[in-house]
Amino acid sequence: MKLAKAEVFVCCPGRNFVTLKLTTDDGIVGLGDATLNGRELAVASYLNDHCSSALVGRDPRNIEDIWHYFYRGAYWRRGPVTMAAISAIDVALWDIKAKSLNTPLYNLLGGKSRREVLVYAHANGKSVDEASAAAGELIAQGFRAVRIQSSVPGLSHTYGIAKGPGGYEPAQPGIAEEHAWDSAKYLRHVPALFERIRADHGSEIHLLHDVHHRLTPIEAARLAKDLEPYRLFWLEDPVAGELQEGLRLIRRHSTTPIAIGEVFNTAYDFSTLLTEQLIDYLRMPICHGGGITHLSKLAAWASFYHVQTGFHGATDLSPIALAAALHFDLAINNFGIQEYMPHSASTFDVFGVGYSLAQGALVVSDAPGLGVTFDEVAAARFPYAPASLPVNRKLDGTLYHW
Ligand code: EZ4
Ligand code: CO
User: Fold this and answer.
1) Same domain, 316 and 239
2) What pLDDT digit, counting tens, does each position of 78-113 carry?
3) What is the CATH number of the domain that holds 312?
4) Domain contains 276
5) Which of 61, 235, 281, 336 sees the fewest Cβ atoms within 10 Å?
6) Which of 35, 120, 212, 341 to mutate to test the pocket of ligand 1 (most atoms within 8 A of CB)?
């Protein structure tokens, strides 16, 4: 078996997606998601200009060798663009292997460890009332875990809050929007938000919150401590993760579980976090962290430290990425939870999927491979539309983490 074609598609069915399609000489198609929100064309170029011709002619069954060819062989290794490209190649190869063996992908990853994949949904509100009402709706739909974000009084924009009807989408057309930030206002607001959510919805529902990298280590330690009475499932990205040692300060002060890693791209980004037991959930997704081949190694390493997975799953990860995550989530022992945001109807005009939602969990179909289809004709109806993620400034104008 040989790879005959490597094609890259950039389309915008509701939002931008980059899709890698590999085809073998006997006509088997493998799909990979290469979307990096706001940097789509950089990954498309990496694949087109630096990978495609090196893929053609290779035996797609040698996934481990191909992974190392593009990782070690690149010399300029790691980084989000390179690793998103390697991830797409790797997932497409696993898709081909599973299809060629006529079996769902999870069977090649150890088989099923559970019946379904627990997901968390997103409740957002411009006020605490709105956030609590949104959480109530999701709980009524059967979700067992809900992430809660609400606007911070006195700030013009807050991460995670949809502008109008429809889901939250931070990337906007043109150059980056500028948002405002104030840690003191935020730190005053969040404990009161969770006090209210627990009072309204009881102790059973799993509650999560995303700080989105915006605190210093000592501020994050304070927030984690202040939130202890509300028993969070996790506090996400309390600090910017490149300073792994920063997580030590949080651990010293609090037992609130910590999730981190949606912007990480290799296992090395977790080394101190695992060996010093500074986190509880790892969020680096398959589509940005080197694919199934690399995540299998990281998840196994994490399991020895009692760290579970909680993969990033915003809508800027395509249905291919979600399907890859679901097969992996189903198979590994140390799965924790999966982030879930429903994709738009136009996204499903392009991507056909086999997973389905039932009582707050996703159920994976037994279709061979990933169980995802990509409609090129439909994709061509939705041309790429440049968009950027926002930037954030403190109230005095100082540039800060978004
Ligand atoms: O801001 O995916 O937990 N989810 C998140 C997301 C990220 C976006 C960035 O593209 O933090 O909303
Ligand atoms: Co996040």
Assistant:
1) yes
2) 999 999 999 999 999 999 999 999 999 999 999 999
3) 3.20.20.120
4) yes
5) 61
6) 212
- DSSP-derived 3-state class of residue 58: coil
According to the model, what pLDDT value does residue 155 have? 95
The answer to the question of residue 197 being in a domain is yes
Torsion on CA atoms 42, 45, 49, 52, rounded to nearest 10: 110
Nearest atom in ligand 1 to 147's CA: 3
Q: Residue 165's pLDDT is what?
A: 74
Given pLDDT bands bounded at 50, 70 and 90, which one contains residue 163? confident
Residue 252 Cα to ligand 2 midpoint, Å, equals 23
Residue 201 annotated in active site: no
Quick one: 72 and 174 in the same domain?
Answer: no
What angle is formed at CA 44 by the lines to CA 42 and CA 48, rounded to 5 degrees? 120
Longest dimension (CA), the chain: 61
What does pTM read for this prediction? Answer: 0.98
Half-sphere exposure of 20 (CA within 13 A, CB side): 36
Same domain, 79 and 158: no
Which amino acid, 131? A
| Residue 369 DSSP symbol | B
pLDDT in tens, 296-326: 999 999 999 999 999 999 999 999 999 999 9
187, 291: one domain: yes
Asked whether 63 lines ligand 1 (CB < 6 A), one says no
- Give residue 308's domain range: 108-367
In the beta sheet, which residues pair with residue 179? 392
Choice from 210, 233, 322, 341 to test ligand 1 binding pocket (greatest atom count within 8 A of CB): 210
Residue with tokens 């005959």: 4
Shared domain for 96 and 212, answered yes or no, is no
Q: Is 212 in the pocket of ligand 1 (CB under 6 A)?
A: yes
Residue 141, number of CB atoms within 10 A of its CB: 11
Which neighbouring-strand residues pair with 281? 259, 308
Q: Percent of the chain at pLDDT above 90?
A: 98
CB of 170 within 6 A of ligand 1: the answer is yes
Across the range 44-59, mean pLDDT stands at: 98
Total domains present in the chain: 2
Work out the burial of residue 20: count CB atoms within 10 Å of its CB; fewer than 13 is exposed, 13-18 middle, 19 or more buried. buried
In the predicted model, what is the mean pLDDT of residues 191-200? 98
Ligand 1 pocket residue status of 283, Cβ below 6 Å: no
Stated length of the chain: 402
Closest ligand to the CA of 147 = 1
